[in-house]
Amino acid sequence: MATDHAPPPVEAPARLLLPQILPALLVGVGAGLLFLGISALAEEFQHVLWNDLPDALGIGNHSALWTIIMLTATGIAVGLVVWKVPGHAGPDPASEGLGGAPLAPGVVPGLLLASTLALAGGVSLGPENPIIAANIALTYWLGHKAAPAVPGAAWVALASAATIGALFGTPVAAALVISEALVGQPGRGLLWDRLFAPLVAAGTGAMTTQLLAEPSFDVGLPPLTDPGFGDLLAALVIASAAAVFGLASCHLFPRVHAAFRRLRHPMLMLPLGGLVLGLLGALGGHLTLFKGLAEVKELTSSIGGWSSGELAKFAVVKLLALVVAASCGFRGGRIFPAVFVGAAFGLLAQALVPEVHPAVAVSSAVLGVLLATTRQGWISLFTGAVLAASPAMLALLCLASLPAWLIVTGRPQLELDHRGNALR
User: Fold this and answer.
1) Number of other residues whose CB lies within 10 A of the CB of residue 115
2) Rg from Cα positions in the chain
3) CA 368 → CA 35, 96, 128, 231, 308, distances in Å?
4) How far apart are CA 358 and CA 350, in angstroms?
5) pLDDT tens digits, one per residue of 5-32
6) According to DSSP H, which parts of 12-107 are helical?
7) pTM (2 d.p.)
């Protein structure tokens, strides 16, 4: 039967997207400023702890004794924050990945304080997880107050994208991660309609970082301009071997975490973890301390100057330090130290087979280790390509990621559920 009722008019996508620009811009700037502020504070405190203080005491700033003292003291300081500060610096970081549900705003100060102390004290964790969690919590809280009708998931997406853009200095990484997260999720409109506001936030966060800090992932690798079959074969083998090496940390993780959890109290877990990290740092040297990005640049500035034994030691010690730091309760992310592990592993491969191009060795190994430890395919591919700084490497890395992914998919991850079991 005919009806006189016309279908409701469909609002033009542009009219829906335009009002999202201003909130996304504000979130991008705020996320970038918080990241830069915490990074600057951690760097200043690091200089005091590792340069000014040992110089004043007449102690070598990277001596084995000072390394053990500093990491143990950092464990005590972070343990006090987790024990006494309201919110206890957030949930157990072993069960937290990038993003997640918004934390209560009251948790944020303790989380940022614990993260800053760990960054300055030499703990082998990066800033990404705490900064993303803090930006999500603050954006969700402020956004809900300013515009209660906007879905909470929209504020979470804006904060995540903005922070990833700020961390990497480019919105491309954020676009890849958000598009991966949107797969299978219900939503109206084309993919780029749904990515529009997060891309604005990511671009603004990246520009904020670039304008104020000029971040760079250029580690000085010689560019590969004309890849051949030998380069492809090397990329396939190294990425797969690095993925197997990275999986070792995933198998160790729940066991080490369970051992620390038996201590039950943060003032036991974190000081002991700091002591273990100090001993590992004394064994591996100063390059195996801190989040790892500056150390990767130092590592790759002397290609051919490291022995295979030294490079193997760097890779193994840093991998163990990452597992211990993430298991005992330090607040931090795993991407940046995993990049160092991959770089050391790649240079080891290149030292054993000098015919392998350094860019192929390092970027392929970083790709394999990140695939194993994060299961973030786009982040892994993007990071490997950025470190190579060579467009010709992109095709090699895309192909190298396939056998590496077959190795890691369905295997334990470097993240636990709330019962302490490894995610798969």
Assistant:
1) 31
2) 22
3) 27, 21, 20, 16, 19
4) 6
5) 555 544 556 677 787 888 889 999 999 9
6) 13-17, 21-47, 53-57, 64-84
7) 0.89
